[in-house]
Amino acid sequence: MPVASVEYRLAPEAPFPAPQEDCLAALAWLSGQAEELGVDAERIGIIGESAGGGLAAGVAQMARDTGGPKLAAQVLIYPMLDHRTGSDACPYRNPTTGEFVWTRASNRFGWQALQGSYSADDARRGWFSPILAGDLAGLPSTWIGTGSLDLFFDENLAYARSLVSAGVSVEVHSYPGAVHGFNMIASAQIAQAFQRDLLTAIPKLLAKGALS
Fold first, then answer.
1. Of 2.60.120.10, 3.40.50.1820, 3.40.640.10, 3.40.630.30, which CATH number belongs to 18-211?
2. Could you tell me how far CA 92 lies from the centroid of its own chain?
3. Each residue of 2-19: pLDDT tens digit?
4. Which ranges of the chain have pLDDT less than 70?
5. Centroid of chain to Cα 7
6. DSSP one-letter code for 66
7. Helical residues (DSSP H) of 116-188, grouped into ranges
8. Is the pTM of this model over 0.85?
């Protein structure tokens, strides 16, 4: 299948909403050039992992809210969704997550870089920190893969529950004992299970999206 990889601007030099706007512009371009590129405009999905997963979730909300291209699916790989995680305002008190690879201190730094001067108190707050969205209805069918020791484990499950409550079709996979970025060890059995689940889900999601 054709894949477009977006070279979006990076924080802190270009904080919110610059990265999101770049990705939305790329999505609009892809949809507009679909026929020329050999892309089925009814079967476009968005995918990202970690910070890219949070960006994908935010852009899916932006596309819905601004009348942008209709997405068939969003595939979120241990996505970074809640700017409160690891801070004093964190709603999750899981003592077993965030000890490896991506820690609470790393998360605070990452979100501060993206946030810049944005106060996250207006209608765009879900574009910035997707879990803060007031309404998740109308978002595309979703696949979420996360690790049980990942700092993002709790926010990923919370987002999945909120999507389900909004009537969005969601498939969630939690990989036991998996830390952030676990799939980079490609030879590990758990990484192979993740890859199998992911590659099985994507064509199903896109096919389902084309029928909705």
1. 3.40.50.1820
2. 19
3. 899 999 999 999 999 999
4. 209-212
5. 16
6. T
7. 125-128, 153-165
8. yes
